[in-house]
């Protein structure tokens, strides 16, 4: 790994480390807060380790002399950076929707189709004619508005310019960065395969996840959420509320879909993650947090 990559990784780790304790020691904390603090440190260390591994792999030269040149048949694009983190827990709930964007019932209805013609981007240089790229650009847009009290996502001022904007390399925001703020994560999801997907969300405090029937934001529909007062989950808690899990949604390989998550943080332990079960995945928990290679930023 180069010195530049190492410095960038360590800089990220410093900026997003859990805040220091104020005028108290770790052992003086109540047992519940000690446990939370320990989980914060473990979670942050895991993220930093994943970032270091990703940087190291990205700089490893490709020794495979496989055919990628002009006139070749394969086409396609390279996967973006970032890795997936598996998590536990999930439960039935959510709302299904139809191609036209109308509500179609609850999680028990078996989901509905987002399939359609068109969408997606063409395969990379040297590829055969036809087909669509099965990956995105490697990141998704993160926006934050500071100094906003409350915990309802209705307080997120999406029509105002944000105070801070950056790109995330997976569908997960930095944890424990502040209090009294609102955030939005938005961009485009490229489906890697055709079939049914199930989406999950976890956050502190309230949040909601919306998905469009295509790449048009106006067609987005809420598919999962955490709402109420108080209403929040732990860092690895996917099953506290039934509404954290969507109904099955049919997506088409290579097609782009607008996706958006809102977060309203009140006090302490802020976080937001979105995971999924892809076609062929079995279980009641996400197989991974949606990786950057399937995402593209807004604008």
What can you see in these coordinates?
It is a single chain. With 299 residues, the protein is an alpha+beta fold. The protein has 2 domains: 56 residues; 197 residues, Jelly Rolls (Sandwich), CATH 2.60.120.380. It is 14% helix and 27% strand. The strands form 3 sheets. Strands 4, 5, 6, 8, 9, 11 and 14 form a 7-stranded antiparallel beta sheet that branches. Strand 1 and strand 2 form a beta hairpin. Helix 1 packs antiparallel against helix 2. The longest helix is centred in the first third of the chain and has 28 residues. About 23% of the residues have low confidence.
Fold blueprint:
Blueprint lengths: L2 H13 L15 H28 L36 E3 L5 E4 L5 E2 L26 E7 L17 E5 L12 E10 L4 E10 L1 E7 L7 E7 L22 E3 L4 E10 L5 E7 L10 E2 L5 E3 L2
Helix pairs in contact: 1-2
Q: What about the largest sheet?
A: 7 strands, antiparallel
Question: Nearest-angstrom radius of gyration?
Answer: 20 Å
Count of separate structural domains: 2
Helix content: 10-25%
Secondary-structure element order, as H and E? HHEEEEEEEEEEEEEE
- What general outline do the C-alpha atoms trace? globular
Mean pLDDT: 75
The helix/strand class is alpha+beta
| CATH fold type of the largest domain | Jelly Rolls
- Tell me the span between the first and last alpha carbons: 32 Å
Assess the beta-strand content as a share of residues: 25-35%
What is the strand tally? 14
Which CATH class of the largest domain applies here?
A: Mainly Beta
Low-confidence stretches: 62-130
CATH arch. level architecture of the largest domain: Sandwich
Q: What's the tally of helices? A: 2
